[in-house]
Amino acid sequence: MNGEESDFNQSDQNDWLEIDPQTEIISVISPDIVEPDVIPPKTEKDDKNKNKNVKLSPGSAAKRKKILRALKDGVDVSELQSFAINRGGLLTNELRKQVWPKQLGVKLNEITPKPAEDVLHGHRDYEQVVMDVNRSLKRFPPGMDDDERFALQDILVDVIMRVLVNNSELHYYQGFHDICVTFLLVVDEDVAFAIVEKLSQKHLRDFMDVDMDRTKHMLNYLYPIIDKASPQLCEYMERAETGTIFCLSWLITWYGHVLNDIKHIVRLYDFFIACHQLMPIYLAAAIVLYRQDEILETECEMCFIHSLLSRIPDNLPFEQLISKAGDLYLQFPPEDLASEAEFRSQENDNRAKRQRANGVAKLHRWSWRNNIRWVSTHMPNYGRRHYLLTTAVAAVVTAALCYSTTDWGWIEWSWF
Q: pTM for the complete prediction?
């Protein structure tokens, strides 16, 4: 893997917190006296001061005071990151509105103005974005009026298009809208755009290439993590050829598409913003390890295990899983797993090439048999030899062109 192809090989691999990983992180990710009082986003009809007046537990109230004090004293990103990672995260949307931009270096007075409507609508991905946003009904709070939801959907389209227009090297992917809508439900349009743009340039960058190669490579870290923590579970899942497709939507939407409770989603966003871009994969490993007994009791077949894992139960202990993901990161950092992840990438590429070759061979055989059948039925005897020779050459050329120009990556992608 070339260094320029992924941020994983850069020196920031240990920068999930910009503090000493051996002294501060362990205390940050372990449970403390703070209870996780996470306040879900509200609609416009809610009381504007609801988050300010909510009754917090004593531990959470004390943590809230510390966060406000840190914001007042000046920007200390590492301290804000520790609050976001620690049990309960940032607690309320009132605090998220202030902390998220500061964590990402967003200067609220320097947000790029929205381009003209014709510029946004003229982008190559505009139609696809509109279709995806129109299908995102479940991501809005239940009970929201249709008019209010339609208005938010229009704003959501604009937020996404502003990011894409301002960053021509980025490509939209299905699932990006699930991330954007989460921020839009917490902060206003301009701030949501600025936050998502920053994340798109780092945390989400590998998802926004012209193809999914880097995304697939990120998924290749899952089994090395599981193998280090539980070789028995890893061997069982690999014997079943479970693959990683079950957690693709977890990764590319930061779990926004697969969780039903918005308070869990924003809590995870607190965590992911403060951490290394691979932390969603470490959380995926934590979830799989947490469900180890269920998996080992399931028949060792891909379809059964995939069906079990593709659905995330609503009652998972997310604070415990966040702590476990942080522990896994410390024990098995990305740089220690890079060679194994690269080996898996090469194995997947080789398997994909074999499947392409098999697919072309099957296409060739199918074409050859059907052409011979047609010739035998319709051509006079004197022309058969000439026609068969011409058909054979044409079939070979067609197969070669098909192989060289067609992206059949989905054949392999569907199963690894």
A: 0.76
